[in-house]
User: Which sequence fits this backbone?
């Protein structure tokens, strides 16, 4: 059976994550860039914004365009032509974020400003 | 320094044990530690540091890769914070489950002057055993560690089998260390616990080798990169030995500054202690604390 077989394993007892109603703020530039990236998949795909551990400050932003996973566990924000989803577990960390898109030769791309963050990394991809 | 190496002793370690399973388990953990672990082959172990955004140590553990799963043995004192970080830090689409294994798996550390004999007594081929490589034998996992001061064999054992392993060790004339004996031996080895390391910088604690400067971003990376570029630290971890008791806490050193003692035990007229000292212009071998002399040795990762 090996060392990892058998009994005695249990799920960690952690405080339930607070779930809040998410509001996201997109600039016109960000919506334009997203529309371009969606490239005709608006009906079947959504963009998911999430947070995961890592980065210099503790958490990293992640943005993915994926096939619509449905509403189970997610909050759906309609921003016009398409939907943006935020998972409930990330709602308190991402509520109120401002998403912009900057086009520069270096360091361009989506820029997120997070009012919930006490600190952020120089590259702007990490917060804590 | 003369190290009173135990003839044949062992201790059942008091640690937090966490099982992380799922195809993303190593990725999730790698994002959180200062040590590069993503390249760990199956059935190996590696020490790793968890740091906060200021680069200061928040937990210290050993990571084991076992057939696609990851076992993390870390400090009992910080287990809630570390597990919370693991749970919160797993993205919604990652295949990673965190399970507490405190009552399922135990780590027994065995110290012996003659590791060849010890290995053969436990049915392990010493020649084939490589440092940090896990060897499976029945329901147990064995791993060998070497430092300049000692050799150690760790056995990861299921809770049901702890007593049978202890009985076997007893039959082989191995003696279980008391907590006091372990503390003395641990200090002699310079074995850092989270009590020593919490809130300090890895370089200061002699744990700079557990910071992988080439792994990209992780909590504390900016601070660690700055320390590396400056090439020096202000404080250094050290071992103190003397003939007078020394209390844990901050002390003044005559004509020197201050020292923070994190571990200390006074036994048979001798004090063994671990401390963080602010380095002067000319490092000294003897320091005077509260009017008593203590010999000092700077320590680094074994």
Assistant:
């Amino acid at each position: 059976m090996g060392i990892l077989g058998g009994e005695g394993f249990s799920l960690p007892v952690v405080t339930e994550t607070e779930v809040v109603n998410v509001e996201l703020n997109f600039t016109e530039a960000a919506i334009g860039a997203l529309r371009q990236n969606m490239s005709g998949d608006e009906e079947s795909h959504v963009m998911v914004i999430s947070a995961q551990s890592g980065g210099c400050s503790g958490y990293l932003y992640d943005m993915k365009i994926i096939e619509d996973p449905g509403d189970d566990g997610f909050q759906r924000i309609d921003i016009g032509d398409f939907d943006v989803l935020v998972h409930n577990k990330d709602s308190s960390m991402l509520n109120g974020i401002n998403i912009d898109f900057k086009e520069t030769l270096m360091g361009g791309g989506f820029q997120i400003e997070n009012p919930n963050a006490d600190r952020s990394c120089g590259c702007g991809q990490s917060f804590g | 320094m003369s190290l009173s190496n135990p003839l044949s002793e062992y201790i059942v370690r008091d640690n937090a044990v966490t099982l992380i399973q799922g195809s993303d388990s190593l990725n999730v953990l790698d994002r959180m530690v200062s040590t590069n672990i993503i390249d760990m082959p199956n059935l190996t172990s590696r020490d790793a540091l968890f740091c906060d955004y200021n680069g200061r140590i928040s937990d210290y553990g050993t990571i084991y890769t076992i057939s696609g799963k990851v076992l993390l043995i870390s400090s009992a004192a910080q287990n809630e914070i570390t597990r919370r970080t693991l749970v919160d830090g797993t993205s919604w689409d990652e295949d990673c489950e965190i399970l507490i294994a405190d009552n399922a798996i135990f780590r027994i550390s065995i110290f012996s002057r003659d590791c060849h004999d010890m290995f053969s007594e436990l049915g392990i081929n010493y020649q084939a055993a490589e440092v940090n490589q896990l060897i499976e034998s029945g329901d147990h996992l064995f791993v060998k560690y070497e430092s300049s001061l000692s050799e150690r064999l760790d056995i990861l054992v299921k809770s049901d089998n702890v007593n049978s392993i202890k009985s076997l060790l007893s039959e082989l004339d191995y003696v279980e260390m008391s907590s006091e004996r372990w503390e003395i031996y641990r200090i002699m080895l310079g074995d850092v616990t989270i009590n020593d390391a919490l809130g300090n910088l890895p370089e200061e604690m002699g744990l700079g080798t557990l910071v992988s400067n080439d792994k990209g971003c992780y909590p504390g990376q900016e601070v660690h990169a700055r320390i590396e570029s400056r090439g020096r630290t202000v404080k250094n971890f050290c071992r103190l030995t003397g003939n007078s008791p020394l209390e844990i806490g901050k002390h003044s050193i005559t004509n020197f500054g201050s020292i923070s003692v994190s571990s200390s035990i006074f036994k048979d007229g001798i004090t063994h202690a671990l401390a963080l000292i602010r380095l002067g212009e000319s490092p000294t071998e003897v320091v005077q604390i509260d009017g008593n002399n203590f010999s000092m040795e700077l320590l680094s990762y074994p």
In short: Residues 28-38 of chain A form the longest helix (11 residues).
